[in-house]
Amino acid sequence: MNAPLPGFTTAPPSARVAPGSPEAARLAARLAAETRGELYFDAASRGRYATDASIYQIEPVGVFVPTSDDDVAAAIDIARDLRVPLLPRGGGTSQCGQTTGAALVIDHSKHLRNVLAVDTAARTAEVQPGIVLDELNAQLKAHGLWYPVDVSTSAQATLGGMAGNNSCGSRSIAYGNMVHNVLGIDAWLADGSTVSFGPVATLGTKERAIADFVRGLAEQHRAEIEAHWPKVLRRVAGYNLDIFHPQSERPYTSDGSVNLAHLLVGTEGSLAVTRSLKLQLAPLPRAKVLGVINFPTFYRAMDAAQHIVKLGPSAVELVDRTMIELARANPAFRPTIEAALLGAPEAILLVEFSGDDKRALVATLKRLVELMGDLGLPGSVVEMTDDAPQKALWEVRKAGLNIMMSLKGDGKPVSFIEDCAVPLEHLAEYTDELTRVFARHGTRGTWYAHASVGTLHVRPILDMRRDGAAKMRAIAEEASALVRRYKGAYSGEHGDGLCRGEWIRWQFGPKIDDALRAIKQRLDPTGLLNPGKIVDPPKMDDARLFRFPPGYRTIELQPVLDWSPWNVQNDPATERTTAPGSGGDTTGGYAKAVEMCNNNGHCRKFDAGTMCPSFRVTRDEQHLTRGRANTLRLALSGQLGPDAFTGEAVRDAMELCVSCKGCRRECPTGIDMAKMKIEWLAHHKARHGHTLRDRLVAKLPDYARLASRVPWLANLRDALPGAARLTERWLGLSAKRSLPRWRRDTFWREAPRLRLATRDEALAADKAAVLFVDTFSGYFETENASAAAQVLQAAGYTVHVATKPGGHYCCGRTHLAAGRVDEARAKARELLDALLPFAEQGIAIIGLEPSCLFTMRDEMLAMGFGEPARTLSEHALMFEEFLAREVRAGRCAPLLRPLGQRLLVHGHCHQKAFDAVRPLLDVLALIPDAKPELIETSCCGMAGSFGYEAEHHDISMRMAEARLLPAIREAPRDAVIVADGTSCRHQIADGAGRKPLHVARLLAGLIERKQGAIT
Ligand SMILES: Cc1cc2nc3c(=O)[nH]c(=O)nc-3n(C[C@H](O)[C@H](O)[C@H](O)COP(=O)(O)OP(=O)(O)OC[C@H]3O[C@@H](n4cnc5c(N)ncnc54)[C@H](O)[C@@H]3O)c2cc1C
Ligand code: SF4
Ligand code: SF4
């Protein structure tokens, strides 16, 4: 059915206007004068838009962020006048390079994201192209509706991008692909005119002429289309020339009518720029059940899929042995995955049935059980009918993929044949043979995803800097031969872009390829729109287009932190990595840590979680984890010019990073931008010097003792009229903020009243605990530290607080935040020496301020202290983590009075990053009658000293206003608010006029003294 191999076209994408040229400057000037959109023509911005989630990188001419339809229309006219290609863009999460190009990139995702209309009776919605799927579905939920093309990137994929790629979700077997759920598209053509594409019967004159033209081509090539067009549901290659004679097993429309909008779906921005989309919605299913089938071999799982789909599931998703093991290795997921397993299966299939009637679904689940018995696998199904375990298991499936993506070293799982689709009856042989292909090329792949439609994701590990391109070509050719043999589709989900464009001709044959070119010629005669995509694409292995081409180099850099765990190489067949420090990175591993960002765009999410607060309020690529990682990568590889690492572009990208560590936990590849920022800042400050404000903040632990002796003097800034404004001018501390109040009654003065144990007493005690009293708790919030000591003592612990002559120990956090790593290291060393004997004896080191405690747990591991730092890290616990652990182990039992008030909880970002919010809720739940309610927030916006800085005050308040402050204002006045972070409490007090409590204080106030307190 397919055309002969390989017939590739080789035209490279060419820029008619070079980035940075006078023509580009003219383009920028006209856009500035004639539109209200945002312009980004500097090298770093262009670099940030030069990549998507593929292996490619092409520098655009510039970036335009329109604020309105008028802006887009004007940009198209200006670009056409100046002969600059255009590249429309959504979230930039494409995997094939279709969102990269030497063009003017138009980013629709920031402003053009409205729902224009919803017709609940007709179940339709009209939307702008920049709206993200999850945002749309959140709005539709109230109507009991959803848009059911549930791509994995639902939190960042825009509807314009989904239409551009003809995206497909996990439930495509039930709902079809994007093309099956689009009713109309309004768009601009390259000549600037608008078209309204919909059912052919309703088209206007101009649109009808286009339809007639395409129909003519379709008629002319009807025999070729029927011979070459894959019949599987998952075919997204090329243009949909078959709209007049549909070839897929699922027709484009249910009534057989023709809709011209379907021609635009999957065109990757190469025929028109979408202005709005009319979408077919579906009722939200009221019930779901899940059957997890355990298979003794991978082959049998694949073989069973064709029989399972006959029961009408809404999804059949594969998780293979490797992923099962990855999930099992993660303590957070182990119980969930183990609940789904029977023995040690080689693969599991997650089979979901959904609908309105739960009883009917349960009956279908029973039929699945019977079917598996008939197939020789009795007792292989774990039935899940409750929502919670189902949801948990879907989360595990996603997390497994994330762990796979976090392989360190230059070899990476590369997406290029990861969505070939084959008919289900051949799935088992296809996967079997492809596995052998991988082995022949010295690599292997982990299989997952859409077994229901014969589209299994698999990414062989390739090193594009070395022999990756040759292996990619060889594997692609062997995989394509298999696809041909099984009459499948080479491009089944993620589009064509640069890595699959050349295979269009292979798939459909030269005549149809020419017909596609004719369509391009008709709609975009000057080749203005996303050139090099679908028609006349480059070769997939053109190394000039790679993000990491052979010969990729990084600058020489002596890192101040230890990045050696990233400085490794890996074995593509076993995924084992070499010893830390052996990877040959000229930056000691820092560059390789940065390169872990594969541009998947997950950090663009707005759902629960922290990442990324600065993007959540700005929606700017520059202020996104991905944008920062890309900027660092470009600077570290010299692509932004000499000394760029310590130059303005990186500084600007780092400016709004609040070091919340949201990315550390939530980025699938574990990008820890907070730590990367420390490294960068150290070099930046070494070149540019520290400001007075930097020093004032960094050295606070050093002068705290002195300041507390003369609090009236130290507090003058907030007492004297006009002083705040002066400090804003001199120091850059916002006059709109009060500063923390110094006081005489510090914890250190109060400590003698607390019956604290000496070092030796603690080391000798049965139940000992060391309380680490940080600068903030010790000097500004004595009550918190005292309360913690009292609660621990009441719980029966011998409590010791380590002090040194003439002062207190400090973790070095304030110095780290200012990039003063040497000073931080000196402080951390002292602290380590003081606390190590306790940790070595298994005694917990208990912290109250999350950012200080987690410095011990995390950053101190990268300071070159070796094993002792690891020992300390393992024993460093937040107060609530310690209590929760001890209660769980039966070593203490709380006796607390009821609270009698609503209880709201705000988690500090670092608590969230280290999964320490759950223990906080567990401990609060020990209060009789308490129902702690977690406020779903990102960062509070204060973030250490960030919110105090004059230039950041407004953005800090915007972060707080996103969710936190409104939630607090809505709570009753007498509700108790728990927040463990000093700066979070300050932000809540400033922004909502409420006084939150540290958990230690709340508990101390509720100790049931009559009954002997906590025992
Ligand atoms: C980890 C991961 C998982 C993924 N899972 C899936 C999945 O389950 N299913 C799936 O189908 N895909 C998946 N993808 C691929 C990708 O996320 C989807 O194709 C997504 O729909 C792209 O949306 P976007 O907003 O990022 O589009 P972009 O990447 O920005 O653009 C996609 C294409 O649409 C064009 N386009 C964008 N806006 C317009 C416009 N206004 N007018 C005309 N053309 C436009 C662009 O030029 C480009 O060619 C995944 C990607 C990753 C990284
Ligand atoms: S920073 Fe992480 S989440 Fe963001 S794009 Fe990169 S890898 Fe994805
Ligand atoms: S540390 Fe926080 S603000 Fe900085 S990039 Fe990560 S998520 Fe964004």
Low-confidence sequence ranges: 1-15, 1010-1015
Strand order of the largest sheet: 15-12-14-13-17-18
Helix content: 40-55%
Radius of gyration: 30 Å
What is the count of DSSP helices, taking H or I runs of 4+ residues? 45
Strand percentage lies at 5-15%
- Enumerate the distinct ligands: flavin-adenine dinucleotide, iron/sulfur cluster
- The pLDDT mean sits at 94
The rough form would be described as globular
Number of DSSP-assigned strands? 28
Sheet of most strands = 6 strands, antiparallel
User: SS-based structural class?
Assistant: alpha/beta
Terminus-to-terminus distance:
77 Å
Fill in the keyword field for this structure:
binds flavin-adenine dinucleotide, alpha/beta, binds iron/sulfur cluster, 6-stranded antiparallel beta sheet, 45 helices, 1015 residues, disordered C terminus
